[in-house]
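Summary for the lay section of the report: proteins are chains of building blocks that fold into shapes. Here we show the chain for Flagellar hook-associated protein 2 and then a coded description of the shape we predicted for it.
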Amino acid sequence: MSDYWSSKTIFAGWATKTDFNSIIDATVKTEKFRYNQLSKEEAETSFKKEQIEGLNNTLMTYKKQLESMDTVDEFLVKKVTSSKSEIATATVKAGAEEGVHTLDVKELASAATVTSNDLDEVAYTAADTTMTFDYDGKTYSVDVKSGMTTKELAKAISLASDNKVKASVVDLGYDSKFKLQMRGMDLGAGHDITLSPELQAVLEGQQDPAVALPAGTPAVTAVASKNARFVVDGIELQRDSNSISDVTEGVTYNLNAIEDGVVIKIDTDYDAIVSNVETFVELTNQLRTGFDLVKNYENEDLDEKGVNYSLKSNSQIKAVENTLKNILTTQGDGFIQGSGAGDDLYATLGTLGVKTIARTDDKNFGKLEFDKDAAVNTGGTQTFMDLLKADPEAVANVFAAAGQGGSSDDSTLEFNSSMYALGLTSAGTYAIEYDGGTLPATGDNNTITMKVNGVDQEVGYDATTQVATIKEGDAKGISFKVVDTSTGTHSATIAIKEGKVKETINTLNEITAAGTGTFNVMIKGYTDQIDHPIYGLKKKMADELARVEALEKQLIAKYAKTEKTLSQYQNIQSMLEFQLKSQLSDK
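The coded shape description reads as follows.
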């Protein structure tokens, strides 16, 4: 019998010596042809599903890795040092200019505080009452109970103000004495605490209003909140925080202590930027290797079984691979390469020396290559490092621009903002044309029409500020000031830039989307092909096995019956032969 049915023992042919088992085996084997074909198909589909799942996971990992460098602030690394880090430090964004800033810290921003005198464990012993305090212009009521401990009083103060003022207790470590401190949660001048006379008396140590405090008991007074006072590059300033980000563009100063003479130095971290480029190239090449492995995968076991598992010619894989490759060879959306005032110095990775290996005899054919010290153009002398040092932001934009906007002519249209970050404005270039003579002269909520890339579109317009906002289409959410309102036709181009890292991530979001992504659709198709309860391969295989099993049982019964019949005839024949021999011997 076949391996599948080897657990079934059939007693056939014991009398007639006919090999019915071989006959049944041969029949079952023939009938299992359809099952074997389905089994191969199931192995093929399962293998392809696993490969596509792996490739989809690789794409999601690649996307996650790229997200660490998908903004100019992350890509264009600036480094900052402080001559006195214990006094002040700083953090910088990509927009910070290289240079040196001097900083004198005159006073730190502080919160309002009140510190009690030394208190006993029980802070109040008189009848239950309500005491109040003011904070930031609002009055809060504290329910003070007879026998309330200092710790309970602190908790009641915090709860009364919903933790806008937090009270804590310090155990002084002797004679069961404690100090209670109230602290406002807001830094900067004007956020002050004022105590009612009753609460002040308790904090001074008066447990019962009927019992006067000893003469000479120190008065408890509130310490007012203060602004930070500091001098940056010779300009004296105040802020309500010790973290100041609105003084020097792209720089946040963090004040730690009071002292003069802090020197903050800002430099572009060229090594870190090069590392970002090299990481991008390495990650991209790892992904391309992943595609190659899937397309060229070989499995000896499946080969021996005759399973056609190859994905080398799969059109969806090729389409995804080519889409991702094309992104890195084309000009970035919103970039205009040229020498005009609104043009970009660089618009493609190739102009920065990040290129695809086109030499067919190279083992890395089709991968990216990058050398920071190699000439970016054949026969040229400029290297990536030369370009980076000449204009770091222009280089970073090609990789990591994420909605940066600009106008080709600020004297006509001055770019204001877009809704790129919200997904409403698409990256690209938008030629905007209008007639200044038709612009409304009054009203802050006008709807007008302007041509955007040659198509009439609705635009909101505020005549007071001259700010226009496009309401529809790919340019939806772009806001700009109409500078030239004179009669006549005017035009300018608004560009919303998207670097190659961001473009790749956005494309990967579509490719790996849970319900509609290319590979997830494939995975669902493979899953249905295998597991669908009506037409899935597993159901078909189970049906085939059931059919073959039923056939085998029928054959066993049939040949058992045949054996029985033949055995009966054989017995009759033997009896007749015996009788015949007996008769002949009698004669």
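Put simply, here is one thing we learned. Confidence is low (pLDDT under 50) at residues 1-7.
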